[in-house]
Specification:
About 50% of the residues lie in helices and about 5% in strands. By secondary structure, the protein is mostly helical. It has one domain. The protein is globular, with a radius of gyration of 16 Å.
């Protein structure tokens, strides 16, 4: 089996990320969810709060390390290939209710604004981080620009299940 570099497919330029082109754009979208009176919900298996906690866990893992990783053979082959495909098309698709391996359970009782604030803190920490990053649990080693793109695609993939509710 050929190993695909985590930086992208040979001859393919990174695709434009479909929902969030920049970190600031994603941060502003999360900030809107944290506002008092914001009326958003998730149409997926997880509540809005649980999805936001999951997104925060993902970014936190890139800084502090993930609780569990896929085997090295996986990250070097299938994981790297998946990342390269996502990067090339600028869009990630994954199961939207699959927890990060070994991560703490998502707390359904957390208010969405609290979960959004946790995600914002994780995004801010990632943005100012200048040290080494932990290997991704499925993709392996990524540099900061590649990790940021992966996080933006992850956010965008989950965002498809978020919808604004009408005022009562």
């Amino acid at each position: 089996m050929a190993v695909v570099a985590a930086g992208g497919l040979g001859g393919c330029a990174p695709g434009r990320i479909e929902r969030f082109a920049t970190w600031a754009e994603a941060r502003n979208a999360v900030f809107a969810l944290a506002q008092p009176g914001s009326r958003w919900r998730s149409s997926g298996a997880w509540s809005l709060s649980q999805a936001l906690q999951h997104l925060a866990q993902s970014i936190e893992g890139s800084l502090a390390g993930y609780p569990q990783s896929k085997p090295a053979w996986f990250t070097r082959t299938l994981g790297a290939a998946a990342h390269a495909v996502f990067d090339a098309r600028g869009r990630m698709t994954h199961s939207l209710d699959e927890p990060i391996p070994g991560a703490a359970p998502l707390d359904a009782a957390w208010p969405p604004d609290v979960a959004a604030l946790r995600l914002l803190r994780a995004m801010d920490a990632f943005e100012v981080h200048t040290g080494p990053l932990a290997p991704h649990f499925a993709y392996g080693a990524l540099d900061k620009p590649a990790y940021q793109r992966a996080h933006l695609m992850h956010l965008a993939d989950h965002w498809q299940q978020f919808e604004q509710t009408r005022n009562a």
